[in-house]
Amino acid sequence: MPSGLVALAVGGFGIGLTEFLIAGLLPQVAASFAVSEAAAGRLISGYALSVAVGAIALTAATARLPRKHVLVGLVVLFVLGNLLSAIAPSYPVMLLGRIVAALCHGSFFGIGSLVARGMVAPERASRAVAVMFAGLTVANVLGVPFGALVGERWGWRAAFWAVTVIGLLALAGIVAFVPSRAGRTPPTAPTGVRAQFGAFRSGQVWLTLVATALGYGGMFGAFSYIAYTFTEVGGFSSAAVPWLLMVYGVGLVVGNLIGGRAADQDRDRALILALAGLTVTLAAFGLLATSATASVVLAFLMGVFGFAGVPGLITRVTDYAHGAALAAGANVSASNLGNALGAWAGGLAITAGLGYTAPLYVGAGIVLISVLVMTVAAHRARSAGRRDRESAVRR
């Protein structure tokens, strides 16, 4: 495995920690700055909004620059944002630090996925992307308990100092081990802003983005309320919820690695199977949520199928966008948009009095639409491939 991929994974781990650890620190942060729980919660929602904005804006603004240099700049931004959070004298400064750190999130994973591909042979592209995203999936497992543990022992600021150090390690690794050739923009890739947006003329790009938004949306719509499903339906104690979430997180790690390998063999088939598996898992979870054993198994499978499609979706959208970095950033924005819409739809189902299993069924329905979209995309891709081969034979 190239050392540069490990450096990208460390960067992904640090960025993932920044996103997730705050959930375990909100009570301490709120008390420290004497703000309400709702105000403290904006440290999460403000981060998510900034991710969506930064994924598009920074990727478009840096399209003409060497990708390795852009990655270095993004990690510097990440370090500065977390440093600002660690030393923040007031709530507004803390919020500013969160926003600064978040701006690099989407662009790092978008541009980083292109750089990761450049370090391996084309037939290993999805696996390279999966290695980079492994850091994010591990952070999903450790983020909340890491923040809670460090915060309890040394205070919430120590958690952000720790993430700042991780960012510095990632920065050193990227500078030292990511080869310059992997960071070069291919001559065929669109670089100007107009050319970048021109990549979105492809119907396959849009179909992939829609499948991404719906796939993430369905899973996150169910995951957002999974703690209530565990305690109110499954009968678990609140103390058991963090461990159950870790089971889900382990599933994310496993699914990411399996999905990357499967996508390199037959990408569209792997994506359809991953999304179909997630649909069945969410529906089964809704039916079997009263069983403790089934809940544990299905939480794991929810993570496996939920992240198995991620490497393939990223390589698919960038392939059809001819390597446009903006398409990779748009994929991250699509996933965050899907997360927001899924959580909203799941909340509506609960508000309507349908119970705490309702978000699972709503999520299954949303992901089923994603399966249909991906099936249409795969069919069109096969048809276009046949036409191209027939045209080549006639010539």
Descriptive report:
The structure is a single chain. The relative contact order is 0.14. The model has no long low-confidence stretch (mean pLDDT 83). Helix 1 runs antiparallel to helix 5 and helix 13 (267-288) runs antiparallel to helix 14 (292-308). The protein is mainly alpha-helical and 395 residues long. It has helices at residues 3-20, 26-33, 37-61, 67-87, 91-117, 125-154, 156-177, 180-183, 193-198, 203-223, 226-233, 241-265, 267-288, 292-308, 310-320, 325-351, 358-394.
Name some characteristics of this structure.
single chain, about 400 residues, 17 helices, globular
Helix/strand layout:
Elements (H helix, E strand, L loop, with lengths): L2 H18 L5 H8 L3 H25 L5 H21 L3 H27 L7 H30 L1 H22 L2 H4 L9 H6 L4 H21 L2 H8 L7 H25 L1 H22 L3 H17 L1 H11 L4 H27 L6 H37 L1
